[in-house]
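Hi support team,

I've been running sequence recovery on a batch of backbones for a student project. Most finish fine, but this one hangs at about 90% for roughly twenty minutes before it completes. I'm not sure whether the input is malformed or the queue is just slow. I've pasted the structure tokens below so you can try to reproduce it. Let me know if you need the job ID as well.

Thanks,
M.K.
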């Protein structure tokens, strides 16, 4: 048996005690057969265990069981106070812009930066020796750059000043502060400027001499003006002041570019954009621009009241309706509506597709309705970003009106208690409007945020200058690429940027109805 591992004796077998085979019963005896082979093997022994317990066998007294378990109450007494204290501390240390905060009655903005734009600025020419002021402010699409135009707001005769654009870019090494990065100069004052809403390198501006210029900031290096610039054809806006600019959104761009393809038979470029400008000569020009292919062509020229043989009004502002493809069909409006405001207070509702031809002129008249306007100069008009067909207008007599394109009379008229100069919608809030104030006294706010639905100002502190001085705000712009920031330029050439915690402001459904 040398070949068997672990055994040194012969295998033993036992015969069954039962002599009669019974197929219905099973014996508890197991017979194991062993055999000897000439190869090495190891014997494995298996055992089966079983257990059957009935409910009567378990004698458990449920009523005698102690509840709660011993020590639980003492454990809770020690743990719960510490947990509650930690929850209270977490609520206090939460971010100021958290929408879960319950302290919404008191909101405070923070002055992020105050910049003296005219500091170390190039000379703007002799002219009438009036101090320069900020004429326009615009944020880049990423919110990391802000452009400011510096010049004279009024001229007794012809403009004899040089125009200047100063661009400030956020630098991480400077604590995300905005640092002066480049200057762009012009031979006339720059009245208005606009960054492209999607392409951060495209900046358009208009001058007092009627020129519309497009800059590609990617090619502007070291603050030297060697970048590619495209200028509108001579005689644009009858060489009069450009009063408003707007980049067309994707839907409007496709509409106008298709119109250009049908008229000229030329294919559009992949990087073609549509820029719209208005001037005080009563015209609105639609431009096809492409900075890479150096295209600056006129698609259409609108002349307000041109077909009615009336004097062309002096346009002060305009805006196109905002449309969204995912909006329900009952809330959609024609995408070709735009409104024009004038210095005389009139508001014209226009259509970019259904217009009247003007005799002996290449221009067309888009006006189809004259709204019940203001009694004085319309400072700005802007369609709501989220309410279909709704737009607001402000005038020099501190009046704010809310209109619907489906009726000529205003839905609401608000008389502001302060003199106002400019306005801008807050992008992610359907009824909040930022308004710039004029002739502000010391320690008072330079801008206010109004809820257009309720007609009341939002309770917001901190919207004053760092030195607590007053002044007159000339232009405001809002960036909501991440945190909400408001930039405001004033008549003293000071640019102020605030961080505003508007996410903490909760609006009820009633507050969203106009």
């Amino acid at each position: 048996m040398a070949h068997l591992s672990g055994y040194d004796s012969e295998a033993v077998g036992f015969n069954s005690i039962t002599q009669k085979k019974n197929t219905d019963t099973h014996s508890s005896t197991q017979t194991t057969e062993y055999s000897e082979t000439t190869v090495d093997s190891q014997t494995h022994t298996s055992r089966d265990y079983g257990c059957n317990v009935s409910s009567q066998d378990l004698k458990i007294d449920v009523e005698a069981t102690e509840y709660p378990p011993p020590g639980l109450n003492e454990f809770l007494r020690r743990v719960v106070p510490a947990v509650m204290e930690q929850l209270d501390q977490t609520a206090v240390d939460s971010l100021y812009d958290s929408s879960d905060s319950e302290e919404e009655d008191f909101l405070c903005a923070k002055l992020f930066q105050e910049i003296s734009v005219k500091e170390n600025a190039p000379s703007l020419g002799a002219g009438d020796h009036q101090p320069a002021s900020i004429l326009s402010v615009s944020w880049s699409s990423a919110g990391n750059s802000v452009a400011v135009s510096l010049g004279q707001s009024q001229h007794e005769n012809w403009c004899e000043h040089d125009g200047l654009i100063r661009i400030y870019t956020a630098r991480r090494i400077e604590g995300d502060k905005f640092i002066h990065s480049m200057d762009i100069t012009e031979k006339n004052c720059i009245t208005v400027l606009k960054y492209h809403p999607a392409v951060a390198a495209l900046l358009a501006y208009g001058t007092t001499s009627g020129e519309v210029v497009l800059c590609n900031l990617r090619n502007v290096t070291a603050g030297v003006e060697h970048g590619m610039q495209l200028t509108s054809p001579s005689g644009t806006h009858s060489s009069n002041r450009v009063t408003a600019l707007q980049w067309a959104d994707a839907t409007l761009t496709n509409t106008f570019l298709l119109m250009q393809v049908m008229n000229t038979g030329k294919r559009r470029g992949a990087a073609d954009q549509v820029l719209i400008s208005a001037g005080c000569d009563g015209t609105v020009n639609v431009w096809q621009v492409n900075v890479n292919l150096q295209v600056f062509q006129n698609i259409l020229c609108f002349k307000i009241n041109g077909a009615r043989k009336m004097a062309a009004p002096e346009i002060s502002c305009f805006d196109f309706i905002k449309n969204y493809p995912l909006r329900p069909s009952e809330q959609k409006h024609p995408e070709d509506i735009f409104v024009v405001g004038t210095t005389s207070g009139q508001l014209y509702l226009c259509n970019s597709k259904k217009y009247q031809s003007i005799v002996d002129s290449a221009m067309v008249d888009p006006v189809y309705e004259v709204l019940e306007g203001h009694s004085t100069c319309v400072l700005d008009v802007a369609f709501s970003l989220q309410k279909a067909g709704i737009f607001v207008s402000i005038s020099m007599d501190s009046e704010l009106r809310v209109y619907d394109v489906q009726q000529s009379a205003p839905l609401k008229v608000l008389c502001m208690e302060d003199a106002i100069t400019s306005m801008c919608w807050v992008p992610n809030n359907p009824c909040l409007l930022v308004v710039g104030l004029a002739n502000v006294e010391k320690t008072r706010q330079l801008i206010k945020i109004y809820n257009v639905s309720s007609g009341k100002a939002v309770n917001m502190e901190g919207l004053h200058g760092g030195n607590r001085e007053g002044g007159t705000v000339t232009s405001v712009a809002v960036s909501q690429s991440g945190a909400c920031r408001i930039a405001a330029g004033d008549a003293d050439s000071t640019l102020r940027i605030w961080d505003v915690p508007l996410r903490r402001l909760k609006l009820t459904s009633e507050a969203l109805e106009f």
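--
Follow-up from support: It reproduced on our side and the slowdown came from queue contention, not your input. Residues 337 and 351 are 5 Å apart (CA to CA). No action needed from you.
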